[in-house]
Amino acid sequence: MEYDYLKIEGKSAIVTGGGRGIGRATALALGRFGVKVMVCDIRDDWGESAMQEIRQAGGTAEYCHCDVSDTAQVKTLVNNVMKAFGTVDILVNNAGIGSVSLPFEEITDEDWDRMLKVDLTAPFYLCREVIPYMKKKEYGKIINISSGSGIIGCEFCTHYASAKAGLIGFTQSIAKELGEYHINVNVIAVPTTQTPMLKETDFDVFVEDELRDIPWGRIGVPEDIADMVLYLSSDASEYVTGQVLAPNGGRRTPV
Ligand SMILES: NC(=O)c1ccc[n+]([C@@H]2O[C@H](COP(=O)([O-])OP(=O)(O)OC[C@H]3O[C@@H](n4cnc5c(N)ncnc54)[C@H](O)[C@@H]3O)[C@@H](O)[C@H]2O)c1
Asked: Could you say which of 3, 5, 133, 160 is catalytic?
């Protein structure tokens, strides 16, 4: 007997930053399970190739250029999802930027503002646009992609850790407001994960040290996070809301 554990086939999703890394793995995973996926990114070549890969695997996907830190573009994105799929059931706020390591007194106003805009304000914009549709249906799954550094901090990356800590508080707050509408809102405290961002931000030099702290014996891969998003997008997590989940190989320090 086949048992449908996830019950997500036919749902529709927005995955921000779906062009590469964790967002791409998430978009592909949702597509594989029959979710209609709107991939959004600022890199059209990456976003379009993610869309094509989902289609080639037999799934349904669209692509929309969207800088999530721009309210007007976010509104257009959500209008496009409604036009394409008629509804939005799942929102994955994944798009984010990192930073090269920087003592905090060297962080400029521009660095600080840009980081908060993309990593914290943008998920607020996205939620503000999709939640009215979810409220009407009394159904919705919102998954915010934060970081372990949002819980324990991150030396030389204060603006990043501050934005990611804010995203945890944001998640826990709206989860309380939206419970009565049966909209689940959860946040993943992503650990160090092998993606292009890790290389570009020079934080990969800490991987050796981190490995000693991870009983599982390896650092994360994008699919670890995609699998957690699948669970949080599905009816298998019906009673899970306002939670911070940390798939981190049993890391000995708190996250
Ligand atoms: N890789 C890690 O070790 C790690 C650890 C903790 C948290 N995270 C978080 O996971 C998420 C994904 O990270 P990743 O490592 O896959 O990064 P990545 O850089 O490999 O991919 C990020 C994607 O987001 C897109 N993007 C960036 N700014 C955007 C914007 N303004 N609007 C729309 N799209 C935008 C990029 O073009 C890219 O496709 C981020 O929120 C990141 O902070 C990553």
From this structure: 160
Nearest-atom number in ligand 1 for the CA of 118 is: 31
Query: What SS3 class is residue 170?
Result: helix
Closest residue (by CA) to atom 19 of ligand 1? 197
Instruction: Give the chain's domains with CATH numbers.
Output: 12-242 (3.40.50.720)
Q: Sorting pLDDT into bands at 50, 70 and 90, what band is 204?
A: confident
Q: Which of 24, 248, 23, 57 is CA-nearest to residue 152?
A: 248
- Which residues are CB-neighbours of 199 under 8 A, at least 6 positions away? none
Distance 2 CA to ligand 1 centre (A): 36
Distance CA 238, CA 222 (A): 24
Q: Which residues on adjacent β-strands are paired with residue 183?
A: 140
Q: How confident is the model at residue 255 (pLDDT cuts 50, 70, 90)?
A: low
CA-to-CA distance for 121 and 114, rounded, in angstroms? 10
Is the Cβ–Cβ distance between 87 and 9 less than 8 Å?
Answer: no
Q: Is 47 in the pocket of ligand 1 (CB under 6 A)?
A: no
H runs (alpha helix) in the chain? 21-32, 44-56, 71-85, 109-116, 122-137, 149-152, 158-178, 196-200, 207-211, 222-233
Bridge partners (DSSP) listed for residue 39: 15, 63
Site to probe by mutation for ligand 1, drawn from 41, 91, 115 as the one with most ligand atoms within 8 Å of Cβ, is 41
Residue 160 appears among annotated catalytic residues: yes
pLDDT of residue 201: 81
For residue 134, the model assigns a pLDDT of 98
